[in-house]
Amino acid sequence: MLYGLSAEQDMIAQTVRSFVEKEIYPHEELVERTGEVPTEIAQHIKEKTLELGFYACNFPQSVGCAGLSHVDFALVERELGRGSMALNHFFGRPQNILMACQGEQIDRYLMPAVRGERMDALAMTEPGAGSDIRGMKCSAQRNGGDWVVNGSKHFISGADHADFFIVFINRNNFIQRQLSASIFRSSH
User: Where are the beta strands (DSSP E) in the chain?
Assistant: First the structure.
C-alpha cells in the first residue's frame, strides 16, 4: 500500500509554507533582535491568516472554521514549524478545549476566539508539577463576584497577547484531585 499526501493535503502544505516564507520570515530578524512582536506585525499576520481561511483551522465547520482533520492540521503545524514560534502564534490556533464552552461562554469566548477577535492562552504548567495535571496544586475560590487564584503557573505561551486565560486548577483542596479548567479575563 502506498501512502502519501492527497492533492488537497499537498495544497494545504504548500499554502502554509508560502505563508511562512512571505509573512513570517521577513519579521524574524526584528523579533529575534528585540525579543518582542510589534502589535502591527501580529495584527498583520492574523489578518492574512483570516484572509486565507486558516485562522482556527483546528476547529470544526460547525463553528465556522475549516474543520481540518488531524492529519491536515499536522501538516499546517509542520509548515508553521519552519518559522519563528513567536510570530506563527498569530496564525491563530485557539485551544481545542474551547469546544467545551457552554451557554454564554460560547458567545463570550469560543466564537470570538475562532473569529480572531480575542486570543486565548493556556495556563497549565506549574513549578514542581510541570504539565502533569494530577500533580497540580493551583486552586481558585470565589470571593464575592470574583475568583482568587492561589498558586502559580509558568511557561504560558501567548500570555502577552491573551485576552483571556484557560487556567487548569485543582478545585477540591487536593483531596480528590478533581481538576477543572476555568476561563479568566486578562487585565491588559
Answer: 120-123, 139-143, 146-150, 164-170, 179-185
Q: What is the pTM of this model?
A: 0.85
Report yes or no on 106 lying in a domain.
no
Query: Is-contact 117 90, C-beta < 8 A?
Result: no
* CATH number for position 131: 2.40.110.10
Residue 36 domain boundaries:
7-94
Q: Are residues 86 and 22 in the same domain?
A: yes
145: region left, alpha or beta (phi > 0 left; psi from -120 to 50 alpha): alpha
Q: What is the pLDDT of residues 56-113, one digit of tens each?
A: 999 999 999 999 999 999 999 999 999 999 999 999 999 999 999 999 999 999 999 9
pLDDT of residue 149: 84
| Alpha carbons 72 and 142: distance in angstroms, whole number | 41
Phi, psi of 128 (to 5 degrees): 85, -15
Count up the domains in the chain and report the number: 2
- d(CA 59, CA 74) in angstroms, rounded, equals 13
The percent helix, strand, coil of the chain (3-state, each to 5) is 45, 15, 40
Least confident of 11-20, 124-133, 166-175: 166-175
